[in-house]
Amino acid sequence: MNPQLHADQPDYSKLPVQWARLIIDGDSGSGKTTLANRMAGVLRATVVSLDEHLLENGNLYCNQINYEPLRSAICAGGPRVIIEGVCILKVLAKIDITYDYHIFMKLYNGMLGWEYEQYLPKGARLPRSKLTREIAEYYREYKPFDKCNELLERNL
């Protein structure tokens, strides 16, 4: 897929006519939760946030997720579910959940550029923060910004 970059609003006309699960992935603080809630109102969908299923045990983000309740919430969410959170492709692969449409949100900082761009090249030194490092490693492995159906950008 070669998604086109839009502002921070999705192009609803690009959504499949029939869809059951839409995912919103992206940078921390890019507005995934806000967008999910806004879209849920327009599309009459249920929102499931990965953050609501964290054990808060101090482990890496993906190791803090309570996977069975997350899977149950997604499956019980009704005919249309919007799932949002960081590292979402990795999380959904672990619980064997499929999706119909993927939005990726980039956070653009006018001083630095794209928040995680400096960590993507193979030789780049990864950050010290556990969450930032985990997201950078996820981006390197899964390349969600290349696989998404739609790429949105939010400017700080």
Description of the structure:
Strands 1, 2, 3, 4, 5, 6 and 7 form a 7-stranded mixed beta sheet that branches. This protein has one domain (5-155): 3-Layer(aba) Sandwich (Rossmann fold). The protein is of the alpha/beta class and 156 residues long. The protein has 6 helices and 7 strands; from the N terminus they run ββαβααβαββααβ.
List keywords for this structure.
single chain; 156 residues; alpha/beta; Rossmann fold; seven-stranded mixed sheet; globular
Question: How would you sum up this structure in a few lines?
Answer:
With 156 residues, the protein is α/β, with parallel strands linked by helices.
Task: Provide the succession of SSEs.
Answer: EEHEHHEHEEHHE
Q: What kind of sheet is the major sheet?
A: 7 strands, mixed
Mean pLDDT: 90
Principal-axes shape call: globular
Rg is 15 Å
SSE blueprint and pairings:
Blueprint: E1 5-6, E2 21-26, H1 32-43, E3 46-49, H2 61-64, H3 67-75, E4 81-84, H4 88-94, E5 101-109, E6 113-114, H5 130-142, H6 144-147, E7 150-155
Parallel strand pairs: 1-7, 2-4, 2-5, 3-4, 5-7
Antiparallel strand pairs: 5-6
